[in-house]
Structures are given as C-alpha cells and as structure tokens.
C-alpha cells in the first residue's frame, strides 16, 4: 500500500489542512484610512461566544493596527470576488488605499472602528480576546461581538485557498441529519 504513496514535502501540508474560506480582515486606527487584507489562516475555537483564531504576520500592515486597536472585522467574500481578493492579498495597505483601489464598499460597524464590507456574505465584528500567542506565532484569538449577513448572498459559494495561487470554490452542498444543534 505504501508503494502507491509519494512523500509530501512538509512545506505543502497546509495546502490540505486549510479548512475555512478565504476572508478579508479589515482594520482601522482612528485618523487613518481603513485597511483590508486577505487571510486564509483562521479557525473556530468556540461556538458561543464565537472565538476565532487567526494568524496575521508581523510584516503585514494590518498587524500594527490590530495590535493597537484590538478590533477588526472578518468579512467572508463570495467566490465571484476571487480576483479582487487575490489582488488585495498581493499589495500592502502601507502604500495602497485598498478600499478605493478595489471598489469595496466600507460600511459602518456597530461595535468596532473597522468597516464592514458591503459585498461580503457575512461580516463579523471582532475584538482581540487573547494575544498571548502573538509574539511566538502571530496568532490572535478574536471574539465575535456582532455578526451581519447579506441575505441575498447566503448561498453564495466561498473561496478556499490551496496555496501558491490555487483555489477551490464551494461545490454541491449536502445535508446529513445531525444530533447536534
């Protein structure tokens, strides 16, 4: 059986473990323009209140804003925004007004300074709950304090990152009865 398998380089493991959708993370420090970055390294930690762990590299422009404000928005874009999402991820907020350059609609949030994204399926207003692992791993634990959905996009397919410019789009959805609520 092992003869049919080929060793996988450890650098490619993440391409198979990425479970969640590609998201957009917005931040805003008062007196500055809002910023948005593309992110795919996140995971759920708890259901209620919703806790989300995410990695924001120290070199990202959004890292400093998240460190300073301790607030952000996680927006889940539909797959038809794949080109915009990729372009956002290929530039820095340090020299690019991403909302202006990529025709995203910033909408006011109710609990945080960072804007919601009008084109998103879902927007999650978040506060940093735990930053103990930031120094070692750039890992923030966020608590979702308010959530918004766009009803007309509730069934829109999401984008999933598989590394090095490769993505997949949600396919057919199936439902299997669960005893969990």
Automatic annotation (TrEMBL):
SMART domains: Flavin_Reduct. One of its GO terms (molecular function) is oxidoreductase activity, acting on the CH-NH group of donors, NAD or NADP as acceptor. Residues 16-167 form the Flavin reductase like domain. InterPro entries: Flavin_Rdtase-like_dom (IPR002563), Flavoredoxin (IPR052174), Split_barrel_FMN-bd (IPR012349). Keywords: Flavoprotein. PANTHER family: FLAVOREDOXIN (PTHR43567:SF1), FLAVOREDOXIN-RELATED-RELATED (PTHR43567). Belongs to the flavoredoxin family. This is Flavin reductase like domain-containing protein. It comes from Acidocella aminolytica 101 = DSM 11237. The lineage of its organism: Bacteria, Pseudomonadati, Pseudomonadota, Alphaproteobacteria, Acetobacterales.
